[in-house]
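About this split. The held-out portion is used to measure sequence recovery: a designer receives only the structure tokens and must propose an amino acid at every position. Recovery is the fraction of positions where the proposal matches the reference. Here is one held-out target exactly as it appears in the evaluation file.
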């Protein structure tokens, strides 16, 4: 549904250049909720603004629903020379109207009622007054705000304002909804209700959602896939459930922190990833009983991702790796993914993932 190919964006201001995007290949499938995370300045907002051409990429392509938006926008920096919008301009406007966007600070017009705010994009598209009103009321119903149609933004709570923002974003019947930190100005409970709404819209309307967040909880709660950005690049991406099972994945460690790897001579530290049925079996106690060994749990995290129980656990087995081949084999037979987090070779050994193998 959304594909960017080798997307770059270089900002030039006062003789300085900032490379905000540095060769980004993003693939968002139809009907998925896709989260982008990363530190401040990583390029997340720039990426999302390039997806709907609010920001013009320096190079590379953006296509949404099979349509190459960069081709519609024409090449080059900044706004096109006056008078050159012509047919290409209107084609881009049309394509853009099929991409909804919600913002952290809602961006509602304070002098307009809730209903008039939702009607705004339809006015711009030239939809007749009666049809606009019908559509706006339908959308307000959808986001649970039918009774606030005549209120002004100042009379609404943060969560209600964001619902208006979402209704407005849906006015053009978009296939894609972009969200830049839509919940970061909201308290945790309101955040949950807005996320729930986004998930419902995703399911009911088949809407593809690309969202930026700095909260890993958001990724856990509603994202099917996620990407981690750093310095203008995507450094990790994939389905959340697959990332969890990827040894050394930074996103997995952020989502399910299981602690560091202690160093020492005679210890083997392994990471277990539980999915589905394996998540509910008493594997650790079985292992301990079967091989008569003491197991230390160094860290563990369990949660539900996309309706499935998943978890990660970091455990320590006594003795060197060679002595633990059989117990590790046992764990794999139980349907767990087992990755050796580190084989300590002395104090201060570097915790590098060494093996990737086994059950999927
Ligand atoms: N209009 C602009 N002019 C110049 N530089 C910019 C502009 N917009 C963003 N940048 C720079 O591009 C880089 C990426 O910014 P961007 O806003 O995309 O980051 P972000 O990941 O969204 O960060 P945050 O989490 O703080 O919102 C930063 O170094 C930023 O200073
Ligand atoms: Mg940003």
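Reference sequence for scoring:
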């Amino acid at each position: 549904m959304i594909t960017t190919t080798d997307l770059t964006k270089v900002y030039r201001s006062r003789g300085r250049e900032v490379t905000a995007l540095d060769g980004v290949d993003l693939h968002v499938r139809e009907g998925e909720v896709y989260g982008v995370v990363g530190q401040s300045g990583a390029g997340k907002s720039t990426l999302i603004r390039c997806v709907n051409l609010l920001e013009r990429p320096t190079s590379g392509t953006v296509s949404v629903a099979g349509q190459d938006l960069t081709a519609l926008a024409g090449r080059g920096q900044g706004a096109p020379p006056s008078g050159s919008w012509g047919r290409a301009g209107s084609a881009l406007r049309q394509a853009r109207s099929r991409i909804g966007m919600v913002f952290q600070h809602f961006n509602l017009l304070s002098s307009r009622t809730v209903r008039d705010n939702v009607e705004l994009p339809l006015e711009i598209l030239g939809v007749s007054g009666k049809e606009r009103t019908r559509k706006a009321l339908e959308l307000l119903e959808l986001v649970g705000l039918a009774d606030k149609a005549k209120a002004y933004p100042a009379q609404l709570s943060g969560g209600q304002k964001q619902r208006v923002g979402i209704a407005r974003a849906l006015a053009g019947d978009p296939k894609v909804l972009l969200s830049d930190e839509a919940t970061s100005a909201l308290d945790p409970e309101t955040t949950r209700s807005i996320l729930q709404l986004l998930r419902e819209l995703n399911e009911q309307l088949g809407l593809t959602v690309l969202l930026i967040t700095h909260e890993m909880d958001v990724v856990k709660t509603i994202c099917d896939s996620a990407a981690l950005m750093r310095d203008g690049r995507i450094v990790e991406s994939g389905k959340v459930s697959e990332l969890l099972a990827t040894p050394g994945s930074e996103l997995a460690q952020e989502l399910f922190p299981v602690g560091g790897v202690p160093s020492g001579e005679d210890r083997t530290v392994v990471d277990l990833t539980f999915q589905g049925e394996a998540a509910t079996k008493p594997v650790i106690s079985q292992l301990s009983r079967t091989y008569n060994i003491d197991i230390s749990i160094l860290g563990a995290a369990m949660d539900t991702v996309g309706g499935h129980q998943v978890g990660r656990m970091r455990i320590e087995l006594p003795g060197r790796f060679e002595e633990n081949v059989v117990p590790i084999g046992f764990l794999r037979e139980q349907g767990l993914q087992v990755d050796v987090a580190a084989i300590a070779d002395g104090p201060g050994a570097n915790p590098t993932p060494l093996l990737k193998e086994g059950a999927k």
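Annotator remark: The first helix runs from residue 44 to 51.
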